[in-house]
Amino acid sequence: FKSLEDIDRKGVRIVVNPGGTNLDYVDKHIRYADVIREKDNDATLQRIRERSADVMFTDLLEGTYYQNKEPGVFCVSTRSILPDTAGNKVYMMAKDNQYLLDAVNSWLSDENRIILARKWLINPE
């Protein structure tokens, strides 16, 4: 696939789990491809593994993880956030663990984010 238009055509199988921005995107923007609705992320990934689905929309963090950990999975990202998919991640930890809090805050700083993005070949924008 070279574009979103290539994905949204008859015969392409898109798998999506219920709820969230991925489903919102598929419901609003996919008109021609076959949409397979699964119960959770594990089931959607299993469809990709089995090749009973061609495409799964997910966030960059999850996609990069799957590409690095799952043989045969290829993650492609867009330079910009897809319409209706913007979201924020939340990192929860015990509030009395100052060492961990300082480490996470350091990791989330712009400089470290850019260094990590380059290391893992992720577009930091």
UniProtKB/TrEMBL annotation:
<protein>
    <submittedName>
        <fullName>Amino acid ABC transporter substrate-binding protein</fullName>
    </submittedName>
</protein>
